[in-house]
Amino acid sequence: MASSSNAQWSSRWAFIMAAVGSAVGLGNIWKFPYEAGQGGGGAFVLVYLLFVFAIGMPVLIAELSLGRRGQLSPIGSMRKIAEAERKNSMWQLIGWSGVIGSFIVLSFYSVIGGWTISYMVDAATGAFTNIDKEGAGALFGSLLANEWLAIFWHAVFMGITIFIVARGVEGGLEKAVTVLMPALFVLLIVLVIYSAITADFGAALSFLFTPDFSKLTFDTVLQALGQSFFSLSLALGSIMTYGAYLTRDVNIGKSAAIIASADTGVAVLAGLAIFPIVFAYGLDLGQGPGLIFATLPIAFGQMPGGAIVGTLFFGLLVVAAVTSAISLLEPSVSYLEEKTGKDRRKIAIIMGIVIFIVGIASSLSQGDNWVSTLKIGGYDILGIKDFLTNNIMMPIGGMFTALFVGWFVSRKSMMDELAMEDSSFRVWYFLVRFVCPVAIAAVFISIMFL
Ligand code: PFF
User: Fold this and answer.
1) 23 CB within 6 A, ligand 1
2) Helix, strand or coil for residue 379?
3) Alpha helical stretches, state H, 71-146
4) Is the pLDDT at 180 greater than 70, yes or no?
5) Where is 315: in which H helix or E strand?
6) If both were cysteines, with which of 9, 30, 229, 241 could 26 make a disulfide (CB 3.0 to 4.6 Å apart)?
7) Relative to the CA of 394, which ligand 1 atom is closest?
8) What is the Å distance from ligand 1's center to 423 Cα?
């Protein structure tokens, strides 16, 4: 992939793998299960699936086409297209919100990325062997309490991300992703089978797939909406930037369907791997961000060959997180590269270090110190960043993106860009013009007034 702003993917497959690499990450395996746990299970999952396909996928198609049409950073592309369509240059704010949002997200995403590296090392060194519920809780607690260690792994995670973005991600990353993404998928299936045989699969199935709408609140609906955007990497400039490296012969509609299905498949598999363990061991469903770190070690600690499977699993999770983190660093790097004309490597290193430093507060907020006592509305620093991006910037950014392509870019430009069959185009156009903006606005209005 790109090492300069006019770079292009080497093939359609390379693009799909990089986009799936961006979409599949901590959002699927770390975030989706704990949000489903907190959101009451089935009803959250159902609403989430609806949002992915009725709102997320149309916006994914919109962002890829805006990127390919603009051929620049998200800010540059939005400005250029607004100009070409003779519309207000304020539309570039969508690009700004994406670049700033991706900066904020990466400043906490990299902290969780660091935890996964730490867990990979724990798995490899046998720390999970015969661990029980209390032991798993204590292991996670000791990582959080050991602030320097958490910051060290956070730094390692950012270091890897910077290294890849600085080099430009050509052959190496493209090749790695094409092998490692399918490997993660296979390993998740192995884990699901293990959980199904040894833990409480029935309880997990009914929790995840029997909707109990009485548990659904407007807040959980907003959470599900934000999560559908987060998981598909939308509204943060990442997908638009990847769209800018896309050649004209790639069919955007079909690619989006593949990306959304792979992403959703991984999230559901992660739920099916984790919840049987949660039920079998009586773990706390609603415990939040610590969920996978408190559950999976128990399974790995007891299964035969668990040290190897555990190391592989957390190793692949690190890879999945890094391929997402790359796409989070890319928007600001591509913007600064475009703006300053300076060397990509220098920009990637500087931006990466700044994000790491900003991220230290997110890391400390999870420990036991004065930073962790700083709270607004019950949220610590990491929680505030997550809430602000996931529940506010992403849905609003997505709404304006849909409004822009649906009402402000000419229908002909979009038809040219998408080259879809007539009937599919009509469905997509209806979704971005009406369904996406109205549904997103409705969720917000209900929260404010109900
Ligand atoms: N989609 C990634 C995940 O699910 O982990 C996270 C992410 C990457 C969100 C890139 C947003 C983004 F722009």
Assistant:
1) yes
2) strand
3) 74-84, 92-124, 133-145
4) yes
5) helix 306-340
6) 30
7) 11
8) 30
Which residues lie closer than 8 Å to 412 by C-beta, 6 or more apart? none
Q: Report the C-alpha gap between 333 and 339 in whole angstroms.
A: 10
CA 119 to centroid of ligand 1, rounded, Å:
21
Contact 173, 180 (CB under 8 A): no
Q: 213 alpha carbon to ligand 1 midpoint, in Å?
A: 28
Which tens digits make up the pLDDT trace of 247-288? 899 999 999 999 999 999 999 999 999 999 989 988 888 888
- Token pair 């730490």 is found at 118
Report how far residue 325's alpha carbon sits from residue 388's, in angstroms, rounded to the nearest whole number. 18
Q: What does the radius of gyration of the chain's CA atoms come to, in whole angstroms?
A: 21
- Pick the closest to residue 238 from 122, 362, 100 (CA basis): 100
Output the residue whose Cα is nearest ligand 1's atom 11.
233
What angle (nearest 5°) sits at the alpha carbon of residue 270, between those of residues 103 and 218?
A: 65
Tell me: pLDDT of 186 over 50.
Answer: yes
d(CA 150, CA 434): 45
Ligand 1 midpoint to CA 199 (Å) = 30
